[in-house]
Structures are given as structure tokens and as C-alpha cells.
Amino acid sequence: MDGLLLNKIFGAVLATALVIFGVRELSHTLVHPHIPDHPGYAVEVTGSTGTDAGPVEVVKEISLAELLASASLSSGERVAKKCAACHTFDNGGANKTGPNLWNVMGRAAAGADGFGFSSAMSGSGLTWDFETMNQFLAKPKELVPGTAMSFAGIKKPKDRANLLAWIRSKSDAPLDLPVFVAPVEEIVEAAADMVGDAAQDIETAAIASSEAAADGAADLLNSLPNVSGTDPTHEAAVDQAGTEALDEITGGDQ
Ligand code: HEC
Questions:
Q1: How many whole angstroms separate alpha carbon 151 and alpha carbon 155?
Q2: Which of 65, 129, 154, 236 is surrounded by the most beta carbons within 10 Å?
Q3: Rounded to the nearest whole angstrom, what is the distance from the C-alpha of residue 63 to the centroid of ligand 1?
Q4: Ligand 1 in reach of 112 Cβ (< 6 A)
Q5: DSSP secondary structure string, 154-189?
Q6: Residues 6+ apart with CB under 8 A from 176
Q7: How far apart are CA 71 and CA 163, in angstroms?
Q8: Which helix (DSSP H) or strand (DSSP E) does residue 17 occupy?
Q9: Alpha-carbon distance 52 to 211, whole Å?
């Protein structure tokens, strides 16, 4: 009988210790927040810093990948009207002042068949990926000095992204969009929230389990006929059993 009860104590202590070590180990394993050297958003501060400094304008720069991830094809099609005077975009469309642009994304510059490109364009060595096309459409003459394309450029990043998404769709095999990853801080925050919730759950479970263990131990003490505050021999024996059990779990004095 005594052996069975001691087994129960041992079991309860073991369970509690395991849960407590588990919580510690788990939280150490899970919480390794890697704080990046640079924040996910570049925050550009423009404006005078002199003595007459007016209000400082803070521009939150959104990456092209993020703009493309939420681009609108119908808005892109509207922006493309600016190109229609010189370009067709449909499969097999004619070259006009500028070349037909079906399949242009992912292709080397000056790749349209049967069009007489400038030497600036054919010698540019460019490939039309999203970044390059984005720069070209912002300021054609800046990316390709001497290009024959007389077009000032599209100022708004969002308009360019919508247009890029639409041009991308004008293809036999649309180029993969760049992978958009949410800023690192957001990911770390979300992970920390999840770990916090999990730790809370585990802590609650651990408390419940140690309470159950304590109840078990109290029941045991009550059930032993001769154990009371006035019987030092039995108290010492129970203490001893508890210590041994703990030693066995923690590796004690090996
Ligand atoms: C005024 C006429 C004109 C307009 C407007 C114009 N383009 Fe062009 N585009 C050209 C010409 C001409 C070329 C050939 C450039 C060269 O050879 O240097 C060209 C070349 C290009 C190329 C390179 C094609 C290749 O195969 O390498 C792209 C891409 C392009 N244009 C996109 C656009 C887009 C998108 C718009 C609208 C936002 C636009 N263009 C507006 C005349 C125009």
C-alpha cells in the first residue's frame, strides 16, 4: 500500500517537474527573435534640417514586391492608355512608333521582332524583370540614355506597379511575381504573440498539474494514520521520500 502511494507521489512530482522543465526548454527554443540590422521599411526623411526647418515629411517607402502583390489589373490597363499611341500589347500586334510588347516581361531588351531599335536600347544589355522595367517606366531616358522612346515616365510607384502587373499578363507565360515577404518586425511580433499565448497555456496547465500534485500529496499525508505535525519520524520519512524522488528527477548529486 505504502509503495503504491509513494509511486503516486513520485508520479505527481515527476509530472510537475517535467511540465516545468518543458515550459523552460520550450520558451528557450521558441523565443530566439532575430532582430534585423535594418528595419523592413526604409523611412526616408526629407526636408530642410536648417534653422528654418519646416515640418519634416516622412515618406514610408513601399517595396515594388508589396505593390505588385496588391496590384490592380484594371487600373494597370487604364495606365497603359498612355502607351497606346506608340505600342500594341496584344499577341501578334503591329509595331508602331514603338515595338509590340506582347511577351516583353522576362525578355532581353530590344527583343521584339522586326523593329528597328536604337543602338542605345539594343546595346543596353538589360533584361526586363520587374525592377528594371519599373525603373525604365519611371524615367526611360535615365535608365537607357539615348533611347528613341520619347516618354517622360510615370511618376507614381503605384501606377507603375499596376501597369507592370497588366503588362505581365500580356504573355504566353506570365513571369513569376517577386516574392513579397511581410516586414520582419511584423513576423517577429506575430511569432512572439503566438509563443506568448502558448506559454500562457502551458503555464496554466503547469499550475493545474502542480495543484493536482499538491492535492495528491495532501491526500496521502491525510491517509497515513500516524502522520501528524507532532510525529517528527513520519514527517522526516515523507520529506526524505520527496527529496529522493526529486533527486532522481533532476539528476541530484550525481
Ligand atoms: C511616343 C511613343 C512612345 C510612347 C508613348 C511609349 N513608348 Fe515605349 N517605346 C517607344 C519607342 C520608339 C521604343 C524603342 C526605343 C529604342 O529603340 O530606344 C520603345 C521601347 C519600349 C520598350 C522596350 C521594348 C523592348 O523590346 O526592349 C518598352 C518595354 C516600352 N517601350 C514600354 C512602354 C510603356 C509601358 C509605355 C507606356 C507607359 C511606353 N513604352 C510609351 C515609343 C513609345
A1: 12
A2: 154
A3: 24
A4: yes
A5: ---HHHHHHHHHHHHHSSSSPPPPPPP---HHHHHH
A6: none
A7: 8
A8: helix 2-30
A9: 67
151 Cβ inside 6 Å of ligand 1: yes
Among 87, 137, 142, the mutation site with the greatest number of ligand 1 atoms within 8 A of its Cβ is 87
Which residue is associated with the grid cell 522576362? 106
* pLDDT computed for residue 42 by the predictor: 57
**Ligand 1 centroid to residue 226 C-alpha, Å:** 99
- 127 DSSP 8-state letter: B
Distance (Å) from CA 137 to ligand 1 centroid? 9
**pLDDT tens by residue, 66-116:** 999 999 999 999 999 999 999 999 999 999 999 999 999 999 999 999 999
Q: Which of 75, 78, 82, 83 to mutate to test the pocket of ligand 1 (most atoms within 8 A of CB)?
A: 83
The set of cell numbers assigned to 99 is 515595338
Q: Find out whether 156 and 64 touch, Cβ atoms under 8 Å.
A: no
How big is the chain, counted in residues? 254
Q: What is the pLDDT, as a whole number, of residue 184? A: 73
> Is residue 184 lining ligand 1, measured as CB closer than 6 Å?
no
Q: What's the CA gap between 138 and 125, in Å, rounded?
A: 19
